[in-house]
Amino acid sequence: MFLHMNGPDKVWPKTFECQGAHGHQGEVFCLGTKAMNVPEKGGFKSMDAAAEKPLGEWNTYESICKGDTITVMLNGKVVNRLTGCVPSSGRIGFQSENGAWEARRVTIKPFSIKISSLLETPRLKVLIIDGQNGHDWKATTPVLKWILEECGRLTVDVSTTPPSGPNAPSLPKNATTEQQAAHETAMAKWKIEKDEFILSNINPWKQWRPNFANYDVIVMNYAGDRWREEVRSSFTKYVQNGGGLVIYHAANNSFPEWPEYNEMMGVGGWGGRNEKSGPMIRWRDGKFIRDETPGPGGTHGPAHEYVVEIRDFEHPITKGLPKRWMHSFDELYSKLRGPAKNLTVLATAYADPAKQGSGEHEPMLMTINYGQGRVFHNALGHMPKSMEDVGFIVTMQRGIEWAATGRVTLPLPKPEDISAEKIIRRLPKQNNFLHTLECVIKHGMCDHLARPTGWLEWAIK
Ligand SMILES: [Zn+2]
Q: Most buried of 106, 385, 414, 452 (most Cβ within 10 A)?
């Protein structure tokens, strides 16, 4: 393939020649052209000769020309990159010598900012864990995935655990003799179903062993059955050794019996948590204090819209963001308790007693250092509607990047896109059609919203 081809019209025009010949795919020759990082004469060897497929198989060859930089990708891997190319523009051509050269499908795509961000920074690998949750994880995982992939810095895999067993039947308070008898029958039936369920899921649980070390950051959208000891210890080791972890909303309801997990997330709620689990963290008189008052850990009133207020302006996740923003319809998690070791609160929300709140500024965004690992704890995001505002989206993206790398390179949102007065939503837009988050859930990430059938654009509604 000839790139940046310029006249005069002759057999070997002035051009950058990107090789498509078997055994040489991805090599680049400068024919009367120059690149800053290429020797005076000759060309560039492929950086990854193994990226080429065996003879007889189709290869996917991509050349990306941005300004004076040419990047050559073979089967998804960068195999060559030329910088400071002279000339920096020209025609595209195909030429063949010594044999046939076959192309099955050729497409030319206009350049967009999205593509450049993908090329310039290697993307971080995220693993979302779901499969059990008192919440609608089947709805929130696709939205999370969409939010994370949108920023162009992250690629997302999902690991779904085996399902939870049938719930035990409940007995109403002050039950009548009849109700008690019916409950006993239901309990006997449930015990049989539960045992059958456990037996049929022994193997799926044995097989569920995510390789945490393959990822830069793990996002927990899970609250459910205890994991096998082997998985728990590899998870702890992963974070201890410097892995990134994100605790998202009800994931802080998980594993009250697992001390290391509670230490990683700092504070949590429900599951029998109380003063023995640790203190509550309170913002009073301009500083954070540890509140040891006895009582259950974890509560919330009915969902509503509320303001999230940043308390730490120096942390990479929050630095430069507006001080407050109006957060979309959500539960306001309150009275979370835990070991709260090495915990920094980045943002709080006021739990208004008029909305059955605690009357305290409750921690919403937190970071925790655990061993060498970094944890970002986001108590927001009960359901897709709670995940639409720009404040939620950008702090989630920034929190994940920070947990993965300890730095934040993502650009700040425009000041007018975050407001304490009204909710500003960010929704996926394609073909000039504004999609709702329900649409993301319905169509998933692989249908009409997926790359590369069209590039997502942001729209502010
Ligand atoms: Zn919730």
A: 385
CATH code: domain 128-161+208-443 is: 3.40.50.880
Which amino acid would we find at residue 13? Answer: P
> Distance from the CA of 308 to the center of ligand 1, in angstroms?
17
Query: Which residue, among 144, 178, 175, has the nearest Cα to 158 in the 3D structure?
Result: 144
How does pLDDT run across 19-63, given as a tens digit for each residue? 988 888 989 988 988 887 766 566 788 888 889 998 888 888 888
Dihedral of alpha carbons 223, 250, 213, 139, sign: positive
Q: Which helix (H) or strand (E) is 392 found in, with range?
A: helix 390-405
Q: How far is the CA of 421 from the centre of ligand 1 (A)?
A: 24
Q: 457 and 405 in contact (C-beta within 8 Å)?
A: no
- DSSP labels, 156-209: EEEEEPPPP-PPPPP--TT--HHHHHHHHHHHHHHHHHHHHHHHHHHHHHHH--
Q: Which 8-state DSSP code applies to residue 372?
A: T
Q: pLDDT tens digits for 96-152?
A: 887 777 777 777 777 655 554 445 557 899 999 999 999 999 989 988 988 898 787
17 DSSP β-pair partners: 2, 29
Question: CA 319, 323, 329, 333: dihedral to nearest 10 degrees?
Answer: 70
Whole-prediction pTM value? 0.70
How far does CA 263 lie from the centroid of its chain? 22
Q: How far does the centroid of ligand 1 lie from the alpha carbon of residue 304, in Å?
A: 12
C-alpha triplet 288, 289, 290: angle, nearest 5°: 135
DSSP secondary structure letter of residue 227 = P
Torsion angle (degrees, nearest 10) of CA 385, 386, 387, 388 = 60
Query: Can you give the residue ranges of every domain in the chain?
Result: 2-108, 128-161+208-443, 163-197
Residue 286 contacts residue 345 (beta carbons within 8 Å): no
Q: Which residues surround ligand 1, an ion (CB under 5 A)?
A: 331, 382
**Strand 324-330 to strand 124-130: parallel, antiparallel, or no bridges (unpaired)?**
unpaired
